[in-house]
Amino acid sequence: ETGVTQTPRHLVMGMTNKKSLKCEQHLGHNAMYWYKQSAKKPLELMFVYSLEERVENNSVPSRFSPECPNSSHLFLHLHTLQPEDSALYLCASSQDYGTSGSYEQFFGPGTRLTVL
Amino acid sequence: AQSVTQLDSQVPVFEEAPVELRCNYSSSVSVYLFWYVQYPNQGLQLLLKYLSGSTLVKGINGFEAEFNKSQTSFHLRKPSVHISDTAEYFCAVSGRGSTLGRLYFGRGTQLTVWP
Questions:
Q1: CA atoms within 13 A of residue A65's CA, in its CB half-sphere
Q2: Distance CA A19, CA A12 (A)
Q3: By CA distance, what is A88's nearest residue in B?
Q4: What separation, in Å, do the N-terminal and C-terminal C-alpha atoms of chain A show?
C-alpha cells in the first residue's frame, strides 16, 4: 500500500450503531487529520494529531471519538450518530516541521458515511 | 489566521478552451499556497503548490498557478482543458511558521468541461 488508505470506503449505519473508521498512512509522516466534507459546505477540520497527541478538536460532538495509537494509524469511532452526520470523511497526513511549519497534506480516498 | 475565497462556485467551459479558477487569500503572515483537485467519490489530490521562489508554479495535468503577493491571489490556469478535467478544485493556504500545517480551504470551484 502507498499513500494514505481509508477503510471502509462506504458505510451505512443506524443511529444506534457503533462503528469505526480507519486511516493508515504509509508516508512516514508525524501528523494526521480528520476532515468532514458535506454537500454544499466547505471542508471542516475535525481533529489534528501530532506525534500521536491530539492537538486540535474543533468543537466536534462527543459522538465522534478519535484515536491515534501510533503515527501511522488514525481511527474515528462513531456512536449514536445523527442523519446530519452523513458525509464524506477524509483522513490526511503531513510532515510537521515545528516552527518551520508544514507543507502539503496528503489525503486518503475517504469513507462515504450514511446514517439512517 | 488565514482565509481563502474562491470567487466562482461553478465554472462551465468547452473542451479545448482555456480556463482560470480564481483564488484570493488573506493572511497576516507569509504563506504557502496549494491547489487540490477532487474527482467524484475520491479524496483530494495535490495539483500544485507554492512554497517559495518563482511565483509561477507548474503542476500536474498541465495546470499552472501564479502567486501574486500584492493582489493576494493564487489563480489556477490551464490553456486547454479536457473532459477529464471535470472535477472540484480547492485552493488552500497555510501560514509560514504555523505548526501542524493547518490548512485553510476555500469552498471549492466545480469545473465542468463540455464536449
A1: 10
A2: 10
A3: B41
A4: 32
Backbone phi, psi, residue A108, to 5°:
-85, 175
At B99 the pLDDT is 55
Q: What are the pLDDT digits (tens) for A47-95?
A: 988 877 777 777 899 999 999 999 899 999 999 999 999 999 999 998 8
Residue A88 CA to residue A10 CA, distance in Å, equals 9
**Is A103 exposed, middle or buried, given 0-12, 13-18 or 19+ CB atoms closer than 10 A?**
middle
Residue B49's pLDDT band (boundaries 50, 70, 90)? very high
Task: Supply B25's cell numbers.
Answer: 487569500
Which chain A residues have a beta carbon less than 8 Å from that of B100?
31, 48, 50, 55-56, 96, 102
Mean residue pLDDT across chain A = 89
User: Residues 6 or more apart from A20 whose CB is under 8 A from it?
Assistant: A75, A76, A77, A78
What is the spatial distance between Cα A28 and Cα A89, in angstroms, rounded to a whole number?
22
Task: State how far the alpha carbon of B102 is from the alpha carbons of A11, A96, A101, B11, in Å.
Answer: 28, 10, 9, 28
Cell of B41: 467519490
Interchain proximity B103–A105, CB inside 8 Å: yes
Positive or negative torsion for Cα B30, B35, B36, B40? positive
Inter-chain touch B107–A96, beta carbons under 8 Å = no
Q: Across chain B, which distance is largest between two alpha carbons, in Å?
A: 44
Single-letter amino acid code for the residue at A5: T
**Cβ A102–B99 below 8 Å, yes or no?**
yes
